[in-house]
Amino acid sequence: MASLLDRLRPFLPARFRERAPVVPVVRLVGAIGSVSALRPGLSIASCATALERAFTMKGAKAVAIVVNSPGGSPVQSHLIYRRIRSLSLE
Fold first, then answer.
1. How much is the pLDDT for 68?
2. Is residue 8 packed enough to be buried (19+ CB in 10 Å), middle (13-18) or exposed (0-12)?
3. Which residues contact 33 (CB under 8 A, 6 or more apart)?
4. Whole-prediction pTM value?
5. What is the pLDDT along the chain (90 residues), one digit of tens a residue?
């Protein structure tokens, strides 16, 4: 299917010729730092792989991070923040 689209691209109007920008979205949901088997939450360990995947995605122009959290541990919040900042600088 992709090769057919590539062959037809020169015949499309200019606004459809360019590829749409890729923006991965990372959704972080739950209380920060309070993680147990019965109460899932956010910690650096639980969101590290999702962040790694989003920031290493080829062709990504930006990464959107959606956080839905009532709050929680300031230590875990800072660890997550530092990981996001270090990945964005790489």
1. 92
2. exposed
3. 41, 42, 43, 72, 73, 75, 76, 77
4. 0.72
5. 567 777 877 787 777 767 778 899 999 988 898 777 777 788 898 899 999 999 999 888 899 999 999 888 899 999 999 999 999 998
What would the two tokens of residue 83 be? 């990981």
User: What are the distances in angstroms from CA 62 to CA 16, 18, 49, 79, 88?
Assistant: 21, 17, 17, 21, 9
With vertex at residue 72, the alpha carbon angle to CA 65 and CA 80, rounded to the nearest 5 degrees, is: 40
Contacts of 47 by beta carbon, 8 Å cutoff, 6+ apart: 26, 28, 80
Residue with tokens 């062959």: 7
Query: Secondary structure of the chain in the HEC alphabet?
Result: CHHHHHHHHHHCCHHHHCCCCECCEEEEECCECCCCCCCCCECHHHHHHHHHHHHCCCCECCCEEEEECCCECHHHHHHHHHHHHHHHHC
